[in-house]
């Protein structure tokens, strides 16, 4: 796959994310990537493993699911119209294909049950048992945060980044390897203030792990030209919940879950900006293979 193809698809992914509530015609999107409509269909599926229509539909449904969980004042009819479905019934049918629940059921039920990482299903009407498991899980996450994290509310500075896009968690190590091969000859790692960052464009709560889009990033303090599949992005400055963790590589999921529970318990609301991680060491060089990392949740 030519690097230029990936760069152009990246621009399309960003455009789609920013315009899910607008009409997204094939012709408009093809122009963004400087493709013919015919070639866009082929290249897009090679890069993302989804057709363009499949990707747009999935992102709209996932965005709607996120709103259902966080903004209970928004009605299902409003979501249906906002994200381009012709009717409530069409929206409901499509939503149920993704989550095996209609939007109303999804909103009523505990979000942790329908995490795409670990789904807890009710069997034989054992709802009380599941409720107990849920409460136990919440308490475990709270205890985890007390033991593992130092939490602050901080005004985080703007970060200018060079990045490589990765779809699916299993390829992140390769993405960082490519990024470092590009950055090291340019002397970018020699800056003592350089930061290694992972950005999460999707949530594991509502997106399958093999479809979660992430960016493997390195901070840049000078004018860098984007090359090939290397893109440039900016994390806006703003208030964040920042949890400093010292954890094993297998403990990231639990740490994120605990931090989001801490956010809810303390009355904070996530802003419409993307969460990210900042790393302070290479866990492979630590004697106990510990990662020292800040988890950052932007808040309103």
From TrEMBL:
Signal peptide bounds: none
Keyword Transcription in annotation: yes
Listed Pfam families: GyrI-like (PF06445), HTH_18 (PF12833)
Record domain HTH araC/xylS-type: where: 10-109
Coiled coil regions in record: none
Keywords: DNA-binding, Transcription, Transcription regulation
Residues annotated as transmembrane: none
InterPro entries: AraC_E-bd, GyrI-like, Homeodomain-like_sf, HTH_AraC, HTH_AraC-typ_CS, Reg_factor_effector_dom_sf, SmbC-like, Tscrpt_reg_AraC-type_HTH
Keyword Transcription regulation: yes
Top-rank lineage group of the source organism: Bacteria
Protein's name in the database: GyrI-like domain-containing protein
Species for this entry: Flavobacterium procerum
Taxon lineage: Bacteria, Pseudomonadati, Bacteroidota, Flavobacteriia, Flavobacteriales
